[in-house]
Amino acid sequence: MTARHGNGSGRPAPRPNFGDRLTEAVAARESQIVLGIDPDPAKLWPAAVEATSEARARLASTLSEAEDAAGGVGETPSGSRAAGVISRLETAAAVLAHCRALVDAAAPAVVAVKPQLACFERLGAPGWLALEHVCEHARSRGLLVLADGKRGDVPVTAAAYGQALVSSTPSPFGPVSGLLADAFTANPLLGRDALAPMIASARAANAGAFVLVRTSNPGAADILDLELATGERLWERLAQLVDELGDEGPSGLKDVGAVTGATEPQHLARLRELMPHTPFLLPGIGAQGGDVAALAPAFAPGRAGGLITSSRSIANAHQNSGSSPPDAARKEAERLREQAWSLG
């Protein structure tokens, strides 16, 4: 009987790294589009907000299970504190309902979702539970999950970040799973030793990391365009570091990627020269003014070499179309998919 995973030598075949998984996912879904999920409680889809009962039940069930597991430790909140807990739960339920509807609308045209962690964390514990449910729902639709938190700290804390986002935390009571994302964004400005533990956590889980190199916001020029004593710009040095940190798999794509803003496409050729096998995460399309047609250098290693992220232009597409939010989001995601795929 043939082994399920083997290489003919009797030993298990190597597990694919993130670059290989990404290549496979892009080919299977014929998409390089990443749906950014940045929920604003004041701008949720009305129909989703009106149908929050299922989302509320999901969150309430998770909270109840946690309380039961704790054996009733602690006291039930009362008065204004209880009102605050209920308010956060209701808001988180509305956010969850909106995000599930958004994922369902865009899923056929995208390869991954990129939840912005701060948009959930500001809702307290119910917000983090909503985030977990959003990630679970995206995975159920066959999508990769890229956790956008731009984490970075001293090595001990960096290891905890990695465990929280992509792997698990050892404890005397057994391993505790974190968010179990497929990749995360990371801030490199504390240096190589602060990135290493996060990347190690990612590799242990066959996950990836996208390191900030040249971001899409206008203020990036204040820091990232500074010229170093060597004559190179800071973003060029960061690009070299990212290239050194990545491991290349059989697909030819590395497991450590770079965040390279789509709003500054004039840098892409140089970035690709410095990182020939690195996947690029390209934010800034749509609301920030980036143009898909200008991103061709990103796809030099293959279609999975560039992931185009779009959030508001998909979620808010109905504001300019007159269609329902789900229909408009689906059409905008498909438009972006077709435009990017045509670049080859």
TrEMBL record:
User: Composition bias, kind Basic and acidic residues: at what positions?
Assistant: 328-338
Recorded catalytic reaction(s): these are: orotidine 5'-phosphate + H(+) = UMP + CO2
The record lists the membrane-crossing segments as none
Composition skew (Polar residues), residue ranges: 311-324
Is the Glycoprotein keyword given for this protein? no
One GO biological-process annotation of the entry reads:
'de novo' pyrimidine nucleobase biosynthetic process
Q: Where is this region: Disordered?
A: 311-344
Instruction: Name the domain of life this protein comes from.
Output: Bacteria
Q: Which SUPFAM superfamilies match?
A: Ribulose-phoshate binding barrel
Q: What is its EC number?
A: 4.1.1.23
Spell out the PROSITE patterns in the cross-references: OMPDECASE
What InterPro entries does the record tag this protein with?
A: Aldolase_TIM, OMPdecase_AS, OMPdecase_type-2, OMPdeCOase_dom, RibuloseP-bd_barrel
Please state what class of enzyme this protein is. Answer: lyase
Q: Which GO terms describe its molecular function?
A: orotidine-5'-phosphate decarboxylase activity
Family assignment? Belongs to the OMP decarboxylase family. Type 2 subfamily.
The protein here is known as: Orotidine-5'-phosphate decarboxylase
Biological source species: Solirubrobacter ginsenosidimutans
